[in-house]
């Protein structure tokens, strides 16, 4: 089959998508789009077969794309996916988080299903060596029966916590969530580092959050984000600045060491002390490389994709459940009834 004609919109986050597709023979990247002409020029000047656009609608109308990677701010994911779904594409890869709320996420899924468009969401950590190795060890019983997971993550729950939640879902084989309890706070004091606090990626954000989820089989998941996350860079214990996950079992603990320069994975067994673990051999140049090779088979042979929209919806419901629990100040049972973005509702009501 001939290569799929591909485009990328959003050239900050989108360069990882561009670079992956640009070296895979199953794709021909023919178009890029961004509101910043300098970013377009940086790509087009080095790739003379790629056409640049500042107008998303014009790119869709002119380029006859098969595949589109959407790497724009969060508030643009839903409208762009829905518009692209009606433009004759075969597949759309959307950056995480899938959308601003559950209502948008379901609309995106519906638009793609009605137009026979494959939709994946870039929680690519599911396809990275540390996480696939960690999952293998959990599945093999290396730490016994899992009963507790702790995740620490810089940033807000929606933009960054989506990776943590989705990774935990993956590591536990997407268990059914039972209930959720959460609290957040929002500090709007400007600082040199954050002159416009409380807003990011086109939507309101909180400063920090604490969330507890109970899954089936009585597994407890504790999530700490933003300025309520642990920052233990100087200590040999779990709790680093970004995407730090610890899984506790009856006979040991596994630690995904927070995107740090230290070992990716560490194991604490019953003898005491952390032991570094090498990730399994990885057959891909990068997780994005793995994503797009699998996406080609998803589109052309209807094979399932690890980053399916169904998995993204499970993650989004937990995220929205965290915000809704904080809004209502009580524990909630799944499924979550609120389909709008609860943090936006709190802001609109002057409650945070």
For the sheet with most strands, the description reads: 9 strands, mixed
CATH class of the largest domain: Alpha Beta
Following the backbone from N to C, one meets helices and strands in this order, namely: EHEHEHEHEHEHEHEEEEEEEEEHHEH
Strand order of the largest sheet: 16-15-14-13-7-12-11-8-17
Distance separating the two termini: 53 Å
Helix proportion: 25-40%
**Broad structural category:** alpha/beta
Gross morphology is: globular
Output the CATH topology of the largest domain: Dihydrodipicolinate Reductase, domain 2
Explain this structure to me?
31% of the residues lie in helices and 25% in strands. With 352 residues, the protein is α/β, with parallel strands linked by helices. It has 2 domains: 4-125 and 284-308, Rossmann fold (3-Layer(aba) Sandwich); 126-277, Dihydrodipicolinate Reductase, domain 2 (2-Layer Sandwich). The strands form 3 sheets. It has a 9-stranded mixed β-sheet with strand order 16-15-14-13-7-12-11-8-17. A hairpin with a 3-residue loop joins strand 11 (208-215) and strand 12. The longest helix is centred in the C-terminal third of the chain and has 20 residues, at 309-328. 45% of the residues are buried.
